[in-house]
Write a structure and sequence with these properties.
Order of helices and strands: HHHHHH
Shape: elongated
Largest sheet: none
Distance between the termini: 37 Å
Structural class: mainly alpha
Number of strands: 0
Strand content: under 5%
Helix content: over 70%
């Protein structure tokens, strides 16, 4: 319910932004300059979108396969896995935000022919991602029993969660870095790599 409400508000904010005069993309500008779809724009979107769609599709297939494998090992391990993935998603959320920022800022820098600024933004985004993911890992490692204790009281469940938490501690910095690096490449227009 919270996700649907959040997405609904985000949609409303986007629609409102289309009609604000200070917005970069706005309906009045599109009407005034008679901007419409072109074959060239369609081809560029298709080329970039195809590669990104393949990446996202393969990622989702990986998530589905992981869920199917985990579901077969039993109810308790699946429950521990599901809670662990909620904590892992905190890293994804930060990585996704940094990725969007990297795409925008690097695209703007390269559009302005400022390669040095794009390189600096790339480095800064990776450093911020690493710092945030390491901070999250430290919090998860220090307070794991307490955090997982909100979900489970049984010691064997907490033991399973601690094992999962160990994997999360290793994977999260790598995953956040990968997500941000994807954004850097997208901002540079290199979606195939």
């Amino acid at each position: 319910i919270a996700t649907v409400i959040g997405q609904g508000f985000a949609c409303i904010m986007c629609v409102i932004a289309l009609f604000r005069e200070e917005s970069y993309i706005r309906v009045s500008f599109i009407k005034e300059h008679r901007i419409g779809p072109t074959k060239e724009a369609f081809m560029q979107l298709n080329q970039m979108g195809r590669n990104i769609t393949c990446e996202m599709l393969l990622t989702r297939i990986g998530f589905a396969i992981t869920a199917m494998i985990t579901a077969r090992i039993g109810t308790d391990p699946y429950a521990a896995h599901a809670v662990g993935m909620h904590f892992m998603n905190l890293g994804f959320a930060f990585g996704d935000g940094m990725q969007m920022a990297a795409v925008s800022l690097i695209g703007m820098s390269l559009g302005a022919k400022d390669k040095e600024k794009a390189k600096k933004i790339s480095l800064l985004a990776q450093k911020m991602g690493l710092c945030m993911s390491v901070t999250m890992v430290v919090i998860l490692l220090l307070f794991a029993r307490s955090l997982y204790g909100f979900y489970f009281k049984e010691s064997y469940m907490l033991d399973m969660c601690m094992l999962i938490n160990g994997f999360i501690a290793v994977i999260m910095p790598i995953q956040v870095s990968k997500i941000i690096f994807n954004g850097i490449l997208r901002g540079a227009g290199d979606v195939r790599y």
